[in-house]
Specification:
- α5 (about 120-130) crosses α6 (about 150-160) and α6 (about 150-160) runs antiparallel to α7.
- β5 (about 135-140) and β6 form a beta hairpin.
- The chain has one domain (about 20-180).
- The protein has about 200 residues and is α+β, with helices and mostly antiparallel strands.
- The chain is built from 7 helices and 6 strands; from the N terminus they run αββαααββαββαα.
- It starts with about 20 loop residues before the first helix and ends in a 25-residue tail after the last helix.
- Helix content is about 25%, strand content about 15%.
- The strands form 2 sheets. The chain has a 4-stranded mixed sheet with strand order 3-4-5-6. A two-stranded antiparallel ribbon has the order 1-2.
- The longest helix has 17 residues, at about 165-180.
- The protein binds iron/sulfur cluster (2 copies).
- One iron/sulfur cluster binds near residues 16 and 20.
- One iron/sulfur cluster binds near residues 23, 43, 44 and 50.
Length: about 200
């Protein structure tokens, strides 16, 4: 979705390469453009590249996943290879002191097999070391919302102990729980698609 033209600091020597996971995985609901999560953007061409790259939407220009932004994520976490898309966010947990915003990462599971991968457990251990909250996101069928579960507390001890099996067990349990939740249909807040280069966009998973 993006190249090295961002205002955010990007990890040197990391590029999207042939990945286009965000162009499929994300729910986009901006004034300029809307698409459901888990549905390939209709601008992807037959080579799975953005067919309107030079004039793509502002939301697409601004977006960089965690792999591009977070140096503590392992090199093996490029989303198309890891089966996980990481979204760096600032969140305000209900029990946060003074209602402060805290750094968090959302692990969007693209491939269930990733739950047992070394790449994901290494990322969990690194996130705990970085004192970043961890949220698991499980997509529903196309056209529905995703379920998110904050699993920071459950992962704290196994991550500190580097207990990979324990981490995987918690990830599996959270995934099964999130998957069982009934997801409501997405209602786009914005209207129909307009030409690329609209302003004031925002993007959500
Ligand atoms: S417009 Fe291009 S960059 Fe944006 S989601 Fe579609 S394919 Fe990806
Ligand atoms: S998911 Fe990340 S690495 Fe993949 S295309 Fe999007 S920004 Fe690039």
């Amino acid at each position: 979705m993006s190249e090295q033209d961002a205002a955010v600091a990007l990890v040197p020597d990391r590029a999207c390469g042939s990945c286009h996971a965000c162009c499929v995985a994300l729910l986009i609901d901006t004034a300029a453009f809307q698409k459901h999560s888990g549905v390939a953007c209709h601008h992807l061409d037959s080579d799975r590249r953005c067919g309107i790259y030079a004039s793509r939407y502002e939301a697409c220009r601004a977006f960089h996943c965690g792999y591009r932004q977070l140096p503590w994520l392992p090199e093996t976490m490029r989303p198309d290879q890891a089966g996980v898309l990481v979204l760096p966010l600032m969140t305000r947990p209900d029990d946060a002191p003074d209602g402060k915003l805290l750094p968090s990462v959302v692990f969007v599971i693209l491939d269930e097999a990733s739950l047992d991968s070394e790449a994901l457990t290494t990322s969990v251990i690194a996130a705990v070391r970085e004192e970043v909250l961890i949220v698991l996101s499980v997509r529903g069928p196309p056209g529905t919302t995703s379920s998110r579960i904050d699993i920071s507390e459950a992962l704290l001890l196994p991550a500190m102990m580097r207990n990979r099996r324990g981490i995987q067990r918690i990830l599996r349990e959270a995934y099964a729980h999130a998957k069982a939740v009934e997801r409501p249909a997405v209602v786009f807040r914005n209207g129909g698609e307009r030409r690329p280069r609209g302003g004031g966009d925002e993007q959500a998973e």
